Amino acid sequence: MGNEEEYMYTKEHEWVCFEDNVAIVGIAEYAQSALGDITFVELPDVGEDVEQFERLASVESVKAASDIFAPISGKVLEINKKLDAAPELINKSCYDKGWIAKIEPSDLDEKGNLMNAEEYQQFLEGLDT
Amino acid sequence: MELIFEKSASGRKGFQLPKSDVDIQADIPAAYIRKTECLLPEVSELDVVRHFTQLSKLNFSVDGNFYPLGSCTMKYNPKFTEQAAAIKGFADLHPLLPQLDNSLVQGALEVLYHMDRLLSEITGMDDFTMQPLAGAHGELTGVMIIAAYHRLKGNKKTHIIIPDSAHGTNPASAAIAGYEIVTIPTDDKGALDFQKLKGLVNTQTAGLMLTCPDTLGLFNPDIDKITELIHAVDGLVYYDGANLNALLGRARPGDLGFDVIHVNLHKTFATPHGGGGPGAGPVGVKRKLSHLLPISRVVKNADNTYALNYNYPDSIGYVASFYGNFGVILKAYAYILMLGKEGLRNVSDHAVLNASYMMAKLKDYYQIAYDRRCMHECVFSAMRQEAQGVHAVDIAKFLIDKGMHPPTIYFPLIVKEAIMIEPTETESKESMDQFIAAMIEAAQLAEKDPKSFKQYPKTMPITRPDEVKAAKEIHCNFFAKR
Amino acid sequence: MSGFIANTDSDIKDMLQAIGVNSIDDLFVDIKPRHAPHSFDVPEGKSEFEVLERLYGLAARNATNLVSFLGAGYYDHYVPSAVSALASRSEFYTAYTPYQPECSQGTLQALFEYQSMICTLTDMDIANASLYDGGTALYEAMMMALRITGRKKIIMDGGVSPIYRTIIRSYTKNLDIAFAETPVVHGRSNRAEIKKMLDQDTAAIILQNPNFFGAIDDHSDIVETAHSRGVLVLESVYPVSLGLLKTPGEMAVDIVTGEGQSLGLALSFGGPYLGFMATRKEYVRKMPGRIVGETIDTKGRRCFVNTLQVREQHIRRERANSNICTNVALCAIQATIFMSLLGRSGLKDLAGLIFQKAEFARQEISKIKGVEVKRSSPTFNEFTICLPQKASAIIPKMISQGFAPGFPLSRYYPDMEHYLLIAVTEKRTKEEIVNFAMALERALWN
Known about the structure:
heterotrimer, A: alpha+beta, CATH 2.40.50.100, seven-stranded antiparallel sheet, three-stranded antiparallel sheet, B: 3 domains, seven-stranded mixed sheet, globular
C-alpha cells in the first residue's frame, strides 16, 4: 500500500487500492473519525464472493455498528487478522495497517463506479456544507 | 467495592437448610453428577446483607433522587402496591393451579379480568391480554397480531412503517415478526411527515407503529388523518404506549383510530422499574382483532365466576408461559383502583404541566428541538453548549454531582445532542426548581469554563468508566480467565 | 390532590404564569375537541386502606393453603427472608436500567455477580444480565442459534417443557423455520431418533435436563453427534439441580437457558420470573439481552458498565439481535442474593435434599395399589405416575383432602389422561408425603 492519493473511494467512505491486480480495501479517515474508538471488526471469510457495494464486513464502536461495503466485486483472498486482537489499528492507521480485506476483482470495469482522490475530496467538501 | 466472591471464606454459610427427615439411601448415579465445582461464594447471612445494602447505596433511585429520565416515566412508586403484591394469597399462587380447578384461583382471575376491563376503558380498546412481560414484548405481540390479521384475510403485506424518531424496539419487534421496515422521516415541525407518509403507504403496508405523543413529547393534531390513511389500505395502526402518561382522560388511542396498543404498566401505572425490569406490557386491541389475542384468556361466566378459556382457534398462541407478570399487574391494578377516574386525569394534567414548566424555564438556556407546546416531556439539544466543546453527556455527568439522575441523552436519535426531560406528575415544584437551577448553572459553566466539564462527576465512587476497554476486553464473568 | 401529586394551587398558578398560559387545558391545545374520549368510565378512586381490603378479599379467594405437589418447571421453594428484605431496598427497585454507570454501580455490580454465578452454576463462559422468563429465554436461544449457523431447521426434544414448545411455535409462525420434534415418554432423550434427524440443515437441537418428566440425562453423546454436523445444542435446565448434576458445560452444550424462579422468587401466579442464558465466549456478540462488563474508570478504579450495546435494539434497530429493551434486573438481583446465601455447599445440599425427598415420595406412592411410577432412568425432583383412573376424577378428591396433587399431563398429551406429574421440594415434610400417599390411596379406592 502506498499513497492514498492514488486510492479510489466510495460514497460510504471505503477506499480501495490495486496492487498486482489485487484490490486492498479499508475505510477512509472520515469514517474512522466518525465512528470513534473501534472495538470490534467482523471480517468476511476467505474465499467468500462479494458484490460491489454489498456488505463485506462490519465495524463496531461503543455507540454504533456500521457495515463496510465492498468497493469492488470479487473473491476475498485475505483478511487482516490483526484486527481481531487490535481493532484500534483502523483508528491509528486506516490507510495502511488498518486494511480490512484483499479481494481478487472479478470486473475491473467497476472502477468506473468509484471516485478518485480528487473527486472524493470534493465529495467530502460537499458533505460539510 | 469488593465482589461477593472476594468476601468468601471457606466453610462459611449464609443459610440453614432443614435436616432431611426422610430415611432413605438413594444416590444419583455418578455418571450424572457434576465434577466441576460450583464456585458460589461462602459468606454469612450478615455478609450478604451488608454486601447488598452497601451495593444498593451506590444507586440513584426515584426514592432517593430526582430522576427525570425522558421516555421512562420515572414517577413515584406507591408503597402500598408493594404490600399488595406480597399478599400470601397472590405471592404463593402456583400458575398451574387452574389446570386442577379454576375455583382455586378465583381472586387472581378476577384481578386479570377486571384489569382487562379497566385498561380497555382507559385506552378506548375492546379487549386486552395481560401476557406480555415488558413493553418491547408487548410490541412484538402486537405485531404478531397484525401479521395474523393479514394472514387470515389473505392480505399480501410486506412492510411496517415506523417514524425515524421511534424507540429502537419498534423496528426490532417488527423485524422479528418477519416484516421489512420502512422509515418515515420527521418534518420540520417535529411531526411525522404526512406528505411523505402518503407517498409511502401502499397496498403492501401491513401497518404503522406510532408513539403518541411522539418521542419528542409532541401530540400530532393530525393523528386521526394518519390512522385513516393506513386504514384505507387495510393496514393496522399500532400505538406504542410509552407516552400514555400524557393522555389519561384527555384522549384515548382507541378513539384516535389505533387498532393495537401496548401499555407500559411500569411507566403510566407506577409499578417500579426494578433497575431495569420486571415490567409489564399488556396489549389491547379493537374488537375485530380480539379473536387473535394470545391464549389463555380470562372469561366471566354467567354465574359471575371466572375461567380460563383456550378455545380461540385464530389466536396467535402463547407469548409467555402464563398470564403475564402477575405481581406487576397487581401493583398497577391497586394503583388504578386508588386513583380512580379523577386521579388518573390529574396524572396527565400535572405530568404535562410539570414538563411544560420545565421547558419554559430552560428554553432561554438550551436550544429547543422543536419549539411547540410539549406534552409530558420536553426535548432540548445541547448544540449551543456543544459549540463550546460541552456535550449532552458532560451536562449529564454534571447533574450527577448535584444528586440528580440525568435526563435521557442522545435520544431521540434525530435530535443532535438530545436532552430529554420527563419530570412526571409526582415531582414537586421545589425539586423541579432545583433541577432547573442546576441546568442553568451547567449552561453558564459551559460558556465560562467548558473544559471543566470533563472532571464530572467528582463526588461519586467512580467517574467516566472506560467503555471502549469494556467492549474490547469483554470481562463479564468473575471466573473467566483474562 | 389525589394521585400522588405535590402541586398546590399556588404552585399551579406560578407554573402556568411561567409557561404563559391561563389554564392547564391550554396546555392540551394540540388535542382537538374531536379527539376527546368517547367515554372514560373508570370507578371513583379509593383510599389505600380500602384498596388493600379489596385485594386481601380477592387473595382470600385463591387456594394457597393446599400442600403442593404441583411443579412442571415452577416450584414451591422456600425463599429466605434476607432475599425479600434486601430486594425490597428501594435503591434497587425504584432505579431504572443503569444508563449512567456512575450512579448505578449497585445494580451493575450485582448484575456482574449474577452473570458470574450463572456461569459457575452452568459451567459456561458468559451469561447475559437476564431475560423475561425461562420460556422466552429458550426462544431467544433458538433465534441466536439461527443467527450463528445461518441454518433454518430446529429439532425439539419431546422432553422439553410443552409450555416452552408452544411459546416457540407461536413466535415463529411468521418466520421461515422448519421444526421437527422427537417423541419421548417418561425417560431420557430418544438418542436414535435425534441422531437420525440431525443433519447439515439443522441449526440446533433443543434439549432439557432434567426433562419435563423429571428424567436426568447426560447429553454428551448427542452434543458430540450434533457438533460433528455443525449443529448447536441448546439445553434448558432447572438451576437448583445443578447443585449436583452434570453441567451443560461438562456436556459441551452451546447455549444454556432456564427458569430462575426457583432461585428465590415467589410463584406469584406466573411472574415476574427470571430467564437466564449462558453461552460460550465465541458467541457473545450473537447473544441477546443486556450484558454487564468490568472496566476501569479514569482513575483506574474497577467498575462496571453495560457493554456490547451495539448488539441491541436502541442502536441497531431492525438489525438488532433481539427486540428486548431491558432485562429483569430486580429478579436477577433476588437470585444473586439467594445464591449468595446458599453458597457453595448450600446449593449442593439443597439439591441433595430435594432428590432424597422426591425419592422417598416415589417409593411411598409406588406402594399404592394400582399406581404405577413411570420411569426408565433416574429422576430428580419430579416423576410421573400412572393412575388406574383418569387423573381428572382423582384431582377433586385430592383437593378436598388439602393437596394440589401434581400436574395432569393430559393438558399437553391427550393420550395421558391417567397421568400426573408429581413435584417435591425441600418444603415437603415426611409427614406431608406420607399423608399425600394415604390421601391418594383413599381417593382411588374409597
